[in-house]
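Worked example (supplementary).
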Amino acid sequence: MSDIAESHGGQIRHPGAATYLIIAAFLAVLTAMEITVFYVHALHPVLVPVLIVLAAAKFSLVAMFYMHLKYDKWLLTGVFVFPLIIATLLLVSLILLFAYLSSHMTPVG
Amino acid sequence: MAAQPKPLPSHQPSYLEGGGVLGWLTTIDHKRIAVMYLVSALFFMAFGGFEAMAIRVQLWRPDNHALSAATYNAFFTMHGTTMVFLVVMPLLLGFLGNFLIPLHIGARDVAFPRLNALSFWLALVAGILLHLGWIRGGLPDAGWFGYANLTERYFTPGLAIDWWVIGLLVSGTSTVLTGINFLTTIIAMRAPGMTYMRMPMFVWAQMVTSILILIAFPALTIGLIFLLFDRFFGTHFYVASAGATPILWQHLFWLFGHPEVYIMALPAFGIISEVIPAFSRKPLFGYPMMAYSICLIAFLSYGVWGHHMFATGMGPVADSAFAVTSMLIAIPTGVKIFSWIATVWGGSLRMTTAFYFALGMLLEFTLGGLSGIMHASAPIDLQQTDSYFVVAHFHYVLFGGVMFAILAAFYYWWPKITGRMLGERLGKWHFWLTVVGFNLTFFPMHILGLWGMPRRTYTYGADMGWTHLNQLETIGAFILGVAFLFFYLNIFKSLASGERAPADPWDGRSLEWSTASPPPAYNFATIPQIRGRDAWWILKYGRAGSRGVAAYISGQAPPPPQPGEPVSAPDIHMPAPSIFPLVLGLAVGMMGLGLIIDWYRIVLIGAAVAVLSIVGMGFEYADFGEESHDPEHAPSSGGVDVRKIGVWSFIGSECVFFASLISTFIVYKSRSVGGPGPRILNIPLTSFSTFILLMSSLLMVLALAATQRGDKRWERIWLGGVITFGLIFLSGQVYEFTSFYNEGMGLTTNLFSQSFFVLVGFHGAHVAIGVLWLSVLLLAASAGKLGQSRALSVELAGLYWHFVDVVWIVIFTLVYLMQAVPGA
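After joint prediction of all chains, the assembly is encoded as:
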């Protein structure tokens, strides 16, 4: 069986089962690495950057291959990625703003 | 095949004819829905206007008690809430956007007509819920911004804030659905040849506004959900004594609130960009820069929310950043002002009422913009904040800018909508009274604000020296009220005996003027081929530009295209009416009502009816979705199905929804006081759940692949597998929640527990919805109703399922694995 299957209408070419299984294997390995990093104390100094990189890799694999952004029109990538960037900026901004607030807050009571 | 538009013969039935009351209740025609938005907005405007008048009567003289303080609070709260959510937005998006977008882009309807109807019914239900306080429990009274912790049950007991929270949640849902619909319509349903740079500027404005809606409203939704949990379930998201901070509400509200200003202003800019060229008989000056300016304004508007919060003490770095972005936004706005002036300059002007209001908007909005720039400076803002100067500023923007544009739109497009002209003489009276009344009402507020009169004040002392200016404002408000009486009179006269409008009364430039006034249900007899900007003008006079104008003025222009051969409506396939949007809207209303008045049987019945309605909508058409559009209408976006764009737009909006939840969790987990903390989280169990959810995504793509190759057996097996894995994940979550409860960590235990349960619970709810969706597909597959031709139905469910998966990837990392990392 070819590894590339066509979607209905023959417009978008989706990957076949072999690619999907390989991605699943990658996802399982990356998850195992995340859990390992969590439990190995020697890695804790780099816990945050390593976990963020691993999560970003898993996120990208699912979005590109399972959600077919790698194969679909760029338009759809734009419709997803722009709000994703905004959401990330929102998350970082709120964390930083509240970090400042906490460090300058007068304790209640 | 695309062709030139054929103006329809006069005997063709318009969209207004036929169907009776049931026809209107079940309509999914974008034009009828637009008219229903108009009627509801005018109805609620009467409430908002009455409240404004009552406020001005109360402030007529010092130490006045015409209203009680509590009633005064309720009136200014409901005035703001009503005007923003039930009048201005419905008029700009629901009414004008709905009516004009398909006509502007050469389409027969919006991408999702039934979703469009649902949006309207939800908006109406929201308006009714917001006003039920008149009957029971009192009106909301914490300001349109509902600052925490004033809105907490401890400070505001009773039902008033409950109406507000539920009403705004329903209203927000309606608006987000409209945003998805409009964005998809504009991306996918433009007539052949209508590139992005050939779209009318009104469509540009609506497209960018839709994007803003999708990224701005989720923050408000999350803020309201936290408030709902605080009021109904005893959490403490905004209670300082529990370690929380009311500032969180301000951030979430203004993350929505400032883009909201542009959600209202951008469509107004779009209106002015259509009206001014039409009455200047010139193409819009600087079209590309106008389009880019809209994009830049929208982008910057998302990064300026902090200028509403300078007084909260965000620190010098944040203050500087918000000040810079707020000042930057003046640049693209200035580009628009100068482009409009350049369009008027040297034009062959026709001084109609619509043009008067457009020119009035230019002046009044610029004044509002100038006072707005002052607020970008933190030190100046600190002096002006919470004073009447701010009230003056935002009324110059929202009335002087937005309402003037809406009134220009009324006079410009009314003939197209109703087939009748509005009276010019009454219109001019309306205009001049509006200008005089508006400036008398709001300009003195600048001075009063600088003198120190606080906004929202119930009354003032005679020794303050504010009496005369307040009296001037009250006189202005009543003149404004008289102006609107002229407006309503003009409307009634037009409907009763107005002059019949030809198809193209203003010698217009865009496609809506190529069809009859009012248009037939199907808009265009044939879908037009677009050859440039100002598509209808080009069809009439050749290329847009000075040559066309000169030919017109000198009488050498070619005669306009003649009406084509009569087209019988049955030849054109239009989606059938549907009762489900109305039923679903009512079901949501029942759920909201039941929740507020503690009648949970009503909530359950409403939920059951809602689920049945959604399933009914799913199976109403044979292809599990919106009815197919006219095959003649090929999408211009490169063949992407509208449903796919719609689902991706929804997913994009969900990114901001979950980002707001996750950031709250991170902020609050380290502010938690007492009780269990992140160490309670069960990593082995959650690792297993994560693995299960990831593998469910594998089964999902295998199910899609099986559907695409027509393998019905494996299609059912894989779909069953996804559902099973989803249920295992949910079971793990139930086990986890139960064990936390047994260890003493309930929803209200501390900040960590409440932000954890709400975040993870909402994700779990998404998984549960996905399981239900896939179960319906499995049933359809078992009944032999799926298959290759309907693979898109599986693909759409799969997109949602994978999104739930990627959200969990983020939650697993940030919530579980980084449990020891302090947040803020």
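Two points are worth noting when inspecting this output. Chain B touches chain A through 82 residues (CB under 8 Å). Residues 27-497 of chain B form a domain with the Cytochrome C Oxidase; Chain A fold (CATH 1.20.210.10).
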